[in-house]
Amino acid sequence: MRTGMLALATGLLLLRFLPALPPVWVLWVLPIVGLILLPFRSYPVAFFLFGFTWACTSAHWALEDRLAARLDGQTLWLEGQVVGLPEIRDGVVRFQLHGAESRRARLPDLLRLAWYDGPELHAGEHWRLAVKLKQPHGLVNPQTFDYEAWLLAQRIGAGGTVKRGELLSPAQGPSAWRDDLRRRLLSADAHGRQGALAALVLGDDSGLTMADWRLLQDTGTVHLLVISGQHIALLAALIYGLIAGLARFGWWPRILPWLPWACGLAFAGALGYGLLAGFDVPVQRACVMVAVVLLWRLRFRHLGVWMPLLLALNAVLLAEPLASLQAGFWLSFGAVAILAWVFSGRLGAWSWWRTLARAQWTMAIGLLPLLLALGLPISASGPLANLLAVPWVSLAVVPLALLGTLLLPVPWLGEMLLWLAGGLLELLFLVLAQIATWLPAWFSPALPLWAWLLGSLGVLLLLLPGGVPLRGLGLALLLPLFFPPLHKPPAGRVEVWQLDVGQGLSFLLRTHEHALLYDAGPRYGDFDLGERVVLPSMRKLGVSQLDLLLLSHADSDHSGGALAVQRGMPVAQVLSGEAQALPAELGAQPCTDGVSWEWDSVRFSTWRWQQAEDGNQSSCVLMVEANGERLLLTGDIDSRAERALLDSGRDLRADWLQAPHHGSRSSSSQAFLQAVTPRAVLISRGQNNAFGHPHPQVMARYRALSLEVFDSVKSGALRFELGAHASAQGLREQARFWREK
Q1: pLDDT tens digits, residue range 382-437?
Q2: For residue 409, is the peptide bond before it cis, meaning its omega torsion is within 30 degrees of 0?
Q3: What is the mean pLDDT of residues 196-210?
Q4: Beta strand pairing call for 718-722 and 729-730
Q5: Omega of the bond prior to 23 within 30 degrees of 0, cis?
Q6: Domains of the chain as residue ranges with CATH
């Protein structure tokens, strides 16, 4: 049985690693082959085929429910129901619409929409909306959250922006009740931690600020402020422990067998908490795991601890095969497996404090390979922070928050309990802030496979029981994880990355010993791509400091992420074409015409139009030459600035040209293109952007000159080596089945 369950799990998990899904006809054949093999005692192969077929079929269904390409960028009137809890941040209402219908086309079942300056929405309402639709699309960079995989795992088939709308019917049903409960929680007096309470009680993290997320990430405590398996299991354990304690002291009714009642009520409590939290995929996963553990405790303890874990894994994946696309799935099952490995079979009893300490350091070490494989930050302060935060949140904050929520109908009592829970959270955040200041999170550079395998072997050795031979060797094997070999371009060449930052610009240029960032991506309110994309990508590429941050001009889509970059790593110098318009804390110096320098046999030179009349025209232009190959970065200069650059008498010939002003109609004049004579043009822009970039007339000029065009929407982040006289590669070329169109 165990072999068959392992084979089934392997087939279900294989989906995560497929570059493309097999054809539908293959999925018809595979289960037939499995049925044929069953009588010949080849049931592991049959179970593997069944799991693989079901996972791929489910993925096909999700992909078929995506928005049709012909509707991408179209505006349609549609009707549907608001589901989940709408989020309001920086004047934008973001929400999900279920059962969307339109007279003009078939639409995906679930949409994720944004309504700028929209009205307050409530879960359960029915709306008629005019929506500009777009296909699922995310930024693709060396080190960022895979938004497209997340959308597919949530079975969200399209996004869009609401233009107009009218309410058809008011909120109703369980969703409306949860929304009303959230409003009560957010209006409670909780020492400013109402958003954290809503996250703990309802699973709604929209009330947490970016500063909160940074703090939780730095201290490795993110799992404590979003409802996870830990919270569900905690409530079940408290109920089970309460009944067991009553039975032990003879206070439980003898007519009722305590063990079945303890298991049943513990599961009921876990399920109720899950429903309160919205019962999304992570909560469903936690409830399944709790159910399997309680069933094991009730009837099947003789099977050991690994069979329940395997059953829970298969149950979760059979219910939602796309769960394997989410990092939380791997971390939750990985954490449980590590604890089972460390604590099962050990001789003797441990004190509670020793058990808690052992759990924290083993989790910190055991999850290292998973965190690195998933590209997540490593919190060196995590064991210490969790040693304090886990019992603080689990034994004090969560019980008070849940009890206060249940007692809200009772005058003053519920509010008082929430006030206490909020005070405890505020105190915890103050302590975590001190820990984060002392030891922030660490982002590992890209690891070669051999280094990751050696480190994983080292982790396995360290988790073995004490006294096992060669256990100490594990420490040495961990070294490649923390000191990986870094790729550096040879002298005379430049590694160039055009990062995928949507409607903005950011180029990373790295010579053998130096690094330059040209523009830092946009910032929209609390959404900072400098912090979310540019900084993590540079760390992933092994850049630990910048010799120069060159901001072409002060527009937010070019300089919005600059402060986040400067806070995140040392920056020796900041230059800009609009230094006076940037925040003073950046310490930017003006870019001047005619400045040139050389790094590692690579030549750099700048130009700026002194008679510029606006910010775009003030863009600082950068020419880079390596081994006879040239790159021209132009910022947002328009045709007038292009003419001034032509009149300067410079040699503008370049092999690579960054499309001026994202390919707008006011740039890329014919005379300028003929003077530069590039062989390739690099366009950085957002999908279906409101400006219409790149303009059709500009694209026609590029085609007329037979230029190779690299569009960030189609390529993702783009890499090439200046001086190697080779082509560029986009990260979207790395096949992933969820990026199929």
Answers
A1: 888 988 998 899 889 999 999 999 999 988 999 999 999 999 999 999 999 999 98
A2: no
A3: 87
A4: antiparallel
A5: no
A6: 2-64 (no CATH), 69-172 (2.40.50.140), 183-438 (no CATH), 494-733 (3.60.15.10)
